[in-house]
Design brief:
Keywords: Cell inner membrane, Cell membrane, Membrane, Signal, Transport. β17 and β18 form a beta hairpin. The protein has three domains: about 90 residues, conserved putative lor/sdh protein from methanococcus maripaludis s2 fold; about 100 residues, Efflux pump adaptor protein, beta barrel domain (Elongation Factor Tu (Ef-tu), domain 3, Beta Barrel), CATH 2.40.30.170; about 80 residues, Helix hairpin bin (Helix Hairpins, Orthogonal Bundle), CATH 1.10.287.470. Strands 1, 14, 15, 16, 19 and 20 form a six-stranded mixed sheet that branches. A six-stranded antiparallel beta barrel has the order 2-9-12-11-10-13. Helix content is about 25%, strand content about 40%. By secondary structure, the protein is α+β, with helices and mostly antiparallel strands. The protein has four helices and 22 strands. The longest helix is centred in the N-terminal third of the chain and has 37 residues.
């Protein structure tokens, strides 16, 4: 009986040990990490430089009086378009008309005296040959005639000057453009070359001035040697189509204080989207990079070893690759080394990845666009 009890006890103990021993389970596979991908493509990519520029009038003229007088009338409104030669301001012409009449009367008097003196000298020329008058008398009359002829020439110049002064009473626009604020109105007394009455800006065509780093100067000069460079200007608050122009000016020296070189772009501005004083985003196209490998800019990450991308292999694993890139343009980056055309790169979700991790693409893309 004791023996049977001992056997039962041993059997119960064995069952207890089996129940308490841990069950070894097979390790579970890590789930695939969802990412977004794009395919590296090969295409021609423009080499561009981006910057910010200031829009300036092609030419600016400060309208001032050239004579002293009273403004009789302003012939244009503020902010109006004017043509070259159009009348802008009228100054009271009466004082200048009186001066002109006086000069003309003086000229007529001098002309009459000169004619009499010339005729008198001609008559005495025969008398001196006959010995009736002395040579001294004849020389005196001839000198008087010549003096009066010179006075006639001076009076003619005075008449011409009076006409010029009278012409200055009508101030005309030297350029076609748009008027600004009128500072002096009718009734104000103006002095010659003193205060600005109004300003005319030529806005079609128009200039955009900007600066580029001096490290791009050699590249810029090389591109300019090949022909005219295209530049595009966009107003941040006006999302419409960009204005296209060309580089018209490259400064003759680098600014040593800022390390930049000044340029100007010339734009036709027929639609008048560009306005003096505004800031514009500029894109200068230097050349075109042929058959470049391109990926979305978000695919390129920065690490301790430099720039890298995650490439998705055929077995859906993430492979980290160091890359050499060129400047990005329009949301895309040119890969000079490290990725071949047709390979798939990760563009979103890189922070969750490690080399060799299994991935799954949520939104397969090609060339940065959804299928």
């Amino acid at each position: 009986m004791k023996r049977i009890a001992l056997l039962l006890f041993c059997f119960a103990l064995l069952l207890f040990n089996l129940a308490c021993s841990p069950v070894k389970e097979k390790p579970k596979a890590k789930p695939a990490i969802p990412v977004k991908t794009a395919q590296a493509v090969q295409k021609n990519v423009p080499v561009q430089i981006k910057g910010i520029g200031t829009i300036e009038a092609f030419s600016t003229v400060a309208i001032k009086a050239q004579v002293t007088g009273q403004i009789s009338r302003i012939q244009v409104a503020e902010g109006s378009d004017v043509r070259e030669g159009q009348l802008l301001v009228s100054i009271d012409p009466e004082p200048f008309l009186a001066t002109l009449r006086q000069a003309e009367a003086t000229l007529a008097k001098s002309q009459a005296q000169a004619r009499f003196a010339t005729d008198q000298a001609r008559r005495y020329d025969g008398l001196v040959k006959e010995g009736i008058v002395t040579h001294d008398q004849y020389d005196q009359l001839r000198a008087n005639a010549e003096s009066l002829s010179a006075a006639v020439a001076a009076d003619r110049a005075a008449v011409a000057n009076a006409k010029i002064q009278l012409g200055y009473c009508s101030i005309r626009s030297p350029i076609s453009g748009r008027t600004g604020t009128i500072a002096l109105h009718a009734g104000n007394l103006v002095k010659a070359n003193d205060l600005t009455i109004l300003t005319v800006n030529q806005i079609s065509p128009i200039n955009v001035t900007f600066n580029l780093p001096e490290k791009r100067l050699a590249e810029l000069k090389q591109a300019m040697a090949g022909g005219q460079l295209k530049v595009e200007a966009m107003i941040p608050q006006n999302p419409g189509a960009a204005e296209t122009g060309s580089i018209s000016f490259l400064d003759n020296a680098v600014n040593p204080a800022t390390g930049t070189i000044k340029l100007k772009g010339l734009f036709a501005n027929k639609a008048r989207k560009l306005w003096p004083g505004q800031f514009a985003d500029l894109v200068l196209t230097l050349a075109s990079r042929q058959n470049a490998v391109v990926v979305p800019a978000s695919a390129v990450q920065n690490g301790q070893q430099g720039e890298y991308v995650y490439v998705v292999t055929k077995d859906q694993k993430a492979e980290l690759r160091q890359v050499v890139t060129a400047p990005a343009t329009e949301g895309e980056t040119v890969i000079e080394k490290g990725v071949a055309s047709g390979e798939t790169v990760v563009i979103d979700g890189q922070l969750r990845l490690t080399p060799g991790a299994v991935v799954t693409s949520e939104i397969p893309q090609v060339g940065g666009k959804q299928k």
